[in-house]
C-alpha cells in the first residue's frame, strides 16, 4: 500500500493502492506507521505510483462499509494528515498526477509541493460530504483565503492555477519530478534540524490551535453527515456519474 525507499537518508514513500491510489482505511492507517518506520530519515518525499498521486477517498468503501466503516475511517484520515503535517523533518510532496479530495489534503500537509501534471482540488462538496476539522485546517494553512473557493466551488485546478494560489510551489516535468523533489528535500536539510523543527512548529501552531478549538464540536457532526443514508444515496449517485463520464 505504501512503498518505501531510501535515497541518501531521504525516505521516499510511494502510495501504491490500485490504479489511482484511493484512500481507504488500510492506507490511511499505514501512513503514521510507515512514517514511524522511517523516523531516522533526514527528510521525507511523498509521491504516488502510476498515473495519480491520489484520487482521494475510496467512496465505494464508504458506501459499502456503512456507518461502522465511516466511524473508523474519519479518525484514520485525520491521524494520517496530522502525521504528515507534524513531521519535524522536511516533507516534500511530488504530485505526479491527480490529487483530489483527500489526496489534495495529503499533499497540502507537506512542507513543499511539486506537481508534474493532472489536476488538484477539493471535491468533497460535489460528493455531498463535509470536511473533518483536521483536513480543513491543514488546507487553510496551505492556501489561506483561497480555501473558500476551493471548498465551496469543489473544483479542480491545473498545476498553473494551483501555483497561483500557493497550493503548489513548482511545476516540474514528469521525468524530473522525483529528482527535483529529492533536491528540494536536500536543500531543506541544510537547515539545522532543531531550527527547522522549531520553525515548523511555530508556523503550524495557528492551524493546530484551530483544530483543538473546533474538533470536539465539529467532528461529531461531520461523522453524522458522512454516515447518513442521505449522504450514501448522494455518494451512490456521484459514483454512478463518474462511471458514466
Automatic annotation (TrEMBL):
EC number: 4.2.1.17
Taxonomy, superkingdom: Bacteria
One record GO biological process: fatty acid beta-oxidation
Pfam family membership, one: ECH_1
Keywords linked to the UniProt accession: Lyase
MF-aspect GO terms: enoyl-CoA hydratase activity
Cross-referenced InterPro entries: ClpP/crotonase-like_dom_sf, Enoyl-CoA_hydra/iso
Keyword Lyase: yes
Family annotation (PANTHER family): ENOYL-COA DELTA ISOMERASE 1, MITOCHONDRIAL, ENOYL-COA HYDRATASE-RELATED
Protein's recorded name: Enoyl-CoA hydratase
Protein species of origin: Nonomuraea rubra
Lineage start: Bacteria, Bacillati, Actinomycetota, Actinomycetes, Streptosporangiales
